[in-house]
């Protein structure tokens, strides 16, 4: 999953660099995100200074916590499944403020 997460982060960083509106939206964002796959593998990364860091394989304190199966995460990224539908069905769990949930939604669309 680390490789898939790295690809998502790389695409997001490219979007930040090439899309001034998206870059402006993330300009003052400073968040730590922890994603846990299949209730066992956790990765933590940060968004700050208009950049998303590489994920580190660890579960740590974060502003945003996401729990999802690796299969569902792959389907969301390939657009086979909707993140919103998965969230409403309880298959994608996000522990965060509403604004932070919207941030995650934007990242998954990258």
Automatic annotation (TrEMBL):
This is Sterol carrier protein. Residues 16-99 form the SCP2 domain. It comes from Acidiplasma aeolicum. The lineage of its organism: Archaea, Methanobacteriati, Thermoplasmatota, Thermoplasmata, Thermoplasmatales. InterPro entries: SCP2_sterol-bd_dom, SCP2_sterol-bd_dom_sf.
